[in-house]
Amino acid sequence: MKKILKRISETAIKQGEFTFTDEQIESKWLGNAPASAAEIKQLEERLQIILPKDYKDFLLITNGFTTPNENIEPSFEPIENVGFLKDIDPEIIEIWINNDALLDVAIKLARSILVGGINQEQYFLLIPPLLENGQWEYWKFASWIPGEDPYEGMEHYFINALDFLKSA
C-alpha cells in the first residue's frame, strides 16, 4: 500500500493542479508521520473495537493522508479525529433513517467508523461486521454519489483513486 500512496503523492504533485505545502512538494509525500502501534491500540480501546488489519497497516504507513482533490476524494484523518459517524455527524444518519427504503444503509451508517473526509463533501467509512469473523465494509459515502460507493479494502480504494488521478 505504501507504493500506491507514494505514487498518488508523486502523480498529484507532478500534475500541479492542486495546492500543496512546500514540505509536501519537497518530500513528494501527501501523508503524515506514521502512527505507532501504541497509538493504534489506544484508538481501538477508545472505539472498543479491533480495527481491520489493512487500516492498521495504513496507519503504520501514515497517520492521515491528504487527498489531492477533496471535491472527489476524502482526505484520511489522523487517529485523534477518527470516531463513530453517529458521534461526528448524527444528522446524516437521521436523514437516512427517515427513508424506509434506505433503512439498511442507515443501520450501517449508525455502526460506521469515520476515518476520512471530516468537513469535506464525502466520507470514507469503515463498517464493522455484525459477526465476529465477518467482513469489514469500506465505503466512500456522499449524498452526490448517491449513497455508498463500496470498496474491497484500503488498497483497492487507493488503487482506484490513483487510476482516477491518472485519468484526470
TrEMBL record:
InterPro entries: Knr4/Smi1-like_dom, Knr4/Smi1-like_sf. It holds the Pfam family SMI1_KNR4. Residues 34-160 form the Knr4/Smi1-like domain. SUPFAM superfamilies: SMI1/KNR4-like. It comes from the Bacteria. Signal peptide: none annotated. This is SMI1/KNR4 family protein. It comes from Pedobacter rhodius.
